[in-house]
């Protein structure tokens, strides 16, 4: 593959965290595109194969495997749309309440879309520098046994992997179905669909709570387009050789972590958004980042 590249950008418009990454060529350069192309080709080869890989959970039927992968693909696309705010949805940027200036908050109305719940959707995202390599951070975030360290929705309980579908030779490229095991017997168990992917250019960990009866239909090969979900997750990028917050740069480099949540704050599209809802999501992001930093510091 021969790749000719030419990129020009105004660095004054780039956040200081991302300037080393773009200077290194990893942001817009051919390294990123080739790494993504290689991962996608590997994924397509596995999906077109009739054989089951050693990492697959064989309890999923071939039809269910296809439906789960299709649902995960839609979930990840919606996540990326939700944090980049392209023309797919009409977003309104918010600057209300006691919201951290580095947290971007947007809202939109979800109407007549069978693939997501109707109502007012709030999206909040921020990017921070983490003193851990992208691989280490990715492995931590995708590990269901470590999820209780950062996921407030887990209520401190462990997660169990119910199904696993490999999407590449690297175990980090996969789709899985997780079930929560709440510590409190009065709390009901929930299912979480998760897709993870990694290559030399970066990594994604995307997840969404899913309806249990709907997932039974999908796992039996049923139509996944009517499963309503609002994905949240993480994007992990190498820091390009820079560092942040005057912290000592670790061996192997640090990571740029984007944390993003999409939450249904009201199931009526005509409802008014409250300041309390915005501040709650802002606090959720801040708390999640703090928990991730604390957990990784304990590991080292």
Question: Can you give a write-up of this model?
Answer:
Keywords: DNA-binding, Homeobox, Nucleus, Transcription, Transcription regulation. InterPro entries: HD-Zip_IV, HD-Zip_IV_C, START_lipid-bd_dom. The chain has a nine-stranded antiparallel beta sheet, with helices on both faces. The chain has helices at 19-23, 30-48, 62-84, 134-142, 212-219, 275-299, and strands spanning 92-94, 104-110, 119-130, 158-166, 174-181, 191-199, 202-210, 232-238, 255-266. The chain is built from six helices and nine strands. It has a single domain, classed as 2-Layer Sandwich (Alpha-D-Glucose-1,6-Bisphosphate, Chain A, domain 4), CATH 3.30.530.20. The chain starts with 18 loop residues before the first helix and ends with a helix. The model has no long low-confidence stretch (mean pLDDT 82). The chain is globular. The protein is of the alpha+beta class. The longest helix is centred in the last third of the chain and has 25 residues, at 275-299.
Q: How would you spell out the order of helices and strands?
A: HHHEEEHEEEEHEEH
Here the CATH topology equals Alpha-D-Glucose-1,6-Bisphosphate, Chain A, domain 4
Sequence stretches where pLDDT stays below 50 over 5 or more residues: none
Strand order of the largest sheet: 1-2-3-9-8-7-6-5-4
Sheet with the most strands, sense and barrel status:
9 strands, antiparallel
Q: What's the number of domains?
A: 1
What is the global morphology? Answer: globular
Pfam family, one: START
InterPro entries: HD-Zip_IV, HD-Zip_IV_C, START_lipid-bd_dom
Organism: Arabis alpina (Alpine rock-cress)
Keywords: DNA-binding, Homeobox, Nucleus, Transcription, Transcription regulation
């Amino acid at each position: 593959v021969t790749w000719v590249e030419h990129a020009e950008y105004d660095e004054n418009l780039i956040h200081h965290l991302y300037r080393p990454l773009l200077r290194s060529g990893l942001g817009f350069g051919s390294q990123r595109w080739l790494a993504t192309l290689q991962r996608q080709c590997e994924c397509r080869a596995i999906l077109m194969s009739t054989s089951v890989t050693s990492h697959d959970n064989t309890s999923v039927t071939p039809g269910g495997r296809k439906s789960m992968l299709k649902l995960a693909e839609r979930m990840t696309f919606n996540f990326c749309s939700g944090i980049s705010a392209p023309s797919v949805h009409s977003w309104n940027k918010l600057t209300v309440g006691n919201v951290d200036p580095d947290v971007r908050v947007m809202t939109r109305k979800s109407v007549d879309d069978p693939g997501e719940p109707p109502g007012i959707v709030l999206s909040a995202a921020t990017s921070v520098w983490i003193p851990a390599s992208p691989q280490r951070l990715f492995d931590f975030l995708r590990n269901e046994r470590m999820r209780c360290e950062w996921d407030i929705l887990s209520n401190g309980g462990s997660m169990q992997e119910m199904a696993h579908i490999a999407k590449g030779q690297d175990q980090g490229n996969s789709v899985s179905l997780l079930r929560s095991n709440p510590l409190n017997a009065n709390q009901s168990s929930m299912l979480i669909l998760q897709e993870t992917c990694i290559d030399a250019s970066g990594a994604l960990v995307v997840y969404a709570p899913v309806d249990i009866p709907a997932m039974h239909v999908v796992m039996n090969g049923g139509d996944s387009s009517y499963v309503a979900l609002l994905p949240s997750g993480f994007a992990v990028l190498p820091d390009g050789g820079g560092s942040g917050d005057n912290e000592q740069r670790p061996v192997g480099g640090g990571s740029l972590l984007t944390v993003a949540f999409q939450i249904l704050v009201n199931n009526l599209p005509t409802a008014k958004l409250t300041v309390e809802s915005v501040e709650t999501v802002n606090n959720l992001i801040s708390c999640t980042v703090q928990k991730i930093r604390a957990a990784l510091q304990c590991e080292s």
